UniProtKB/TrEMBL annotation:
InterPro entries hit by this protein: Plipid/glycerol_acylTrfase (IPR002123)
GO MF, one example: 1-acylglycerol-3-phosphate O-acyltransferase activity
Record protein name field: 1-acyl-sn-glycerol-3-phosphate acyltransferase
Species of origin: Cellulomonas gelida
Top-rank taxon, per record: Bacteria
Keyword annotations: Acyltransferase, Transferase
Matches recorded under PANTHER family: 1-ACYL-SN-GLYCEROL-3-PHOSPHATE ACYLTRANSFERASE
Spans traversing the lipid bilayer: none
CC terms in the record's Gene Ontology section: plasma membrane
Domain Phospholipid/glycerol acyltransferase stretches: 35-154
Keyword Transferase attributed: yes
BP GO annotations: phosphatidic acid biosynthetic process
Spans annotated as Disordered: 226-266
Length: 266
């Protein structure tokens, strides 16, 4: 109930009015039955805008810190996250992370949508980072299709450290569902898990037009915090990196609809 009140009455209409979000490919989200929505992760507001633009309820996992904040702001954040169904996850890994994925698995078994960010954390610089294999295990164990999603512009509207996003159009592109039923029963094969994860990340890259970096986003954040700078390729040097060693897709970052007559939803 709280989810739909926030979406339809309290928060959703305001977000539509101010940010004029747009979406392409929403028909790729199944009208019923379980599905995993796998999205790039550019900003905190990703978890607000994607559910806003879908007809079905979409629940994400969120970092544990959203639920443990102190003071008024912390309590409000925790209450909002619980109200919209966000599943807390301890990003330290191990049994805590496994518990969050099990919660997601139960949601899929009930025929619902479950959202996950395969990178595990926000991109520190707008690029797409290596996916963690938890999403592959979830897909193989549940048998649910994986729907790739590209969020567009949220990192510009809300850079790291900015609380209130600036007013600009927010977009998202939804790709065709990926079927991994051919790997049924192979969820404990680490090579299969990596292959499936790379296929998902490649699909996201093809939608988003992002540059891919074959390291984990958390690793890159640690490098940045430590003051380590990576060498930059020459301006005319072609990009060759893509998930799983695939060729880099010839795609561009999606842009908002230019025709104002074109609806931003539907």
């Amino acid at each position: 109930m709280f989810y739909w009140l926030m979406k339809r009455i309290f928060v959703g209409p305001l977000l539509h009015l101010v940010y004029r979000p747009w979406i392409r490919g929403e028909h790729n989200v199944p009208a019923d039955g379980p599905a995993i929505l796998a999205s790039n992760h550019l900003a905190v507001i990703d978890s607000f805008f994607l559910p806003l633009m879908l007809d079905r309820e979409l629940v994400f996992i969120g970092k544990q810190e959203y639920f443990t904040g102190r003071g008024l702001k912390g309590r409000l954040t925790a209450g909002f996250m619980r109200g919209v169904g966000t599943i807390p996850v301890d990003r330290g890994g191990g049994k805590a992370s496994e518990a969050a994925l099990r919660t997601g698995l139960r949601r899929l078994e009930e025929g619902d949508l479950f959202g996950i960010y395969p990178e595990g954390t926000r991109s520190p610089d707008g690029r797409l980072y290596r996916g963690k294999t938890g999403i592959a295990r979830l897909a193989l164990e549940s048998g649910a299709p994986v729907v790739p999603v590209a969020m567009v512009g949220t990192n510009i509207a809300q850079p790291v450290g900015k609380r209130i996003p600036k007013v600009m159009r927010i977009g998202m592109v939804v790709g065709e569902p990926l079927d991994f039923s051919r790997y049924k029963g192979m969820e404990n094969d680490r090579f299969i898990l990596r292959s499936v994860t790379d296929e998902i990340m490649y699909a996201i890259m093809s939608l988003s037009g992002q540059e891919y970096v074959d390291v984990y986003a958390a690793t890159q954040k640690a490098r940045i915090a430590a003051g380590v700078t990576e060498s930059q390729p020459a301006a005319d040097e072609p990009r060759t990196a893509a998930p799983g060693g695939r060729p880099v897709p010839d795609v561009q970052v999606p842009v908002p609809p230019q025709d104002e007559a074109e609806p931003s939803v539907g």
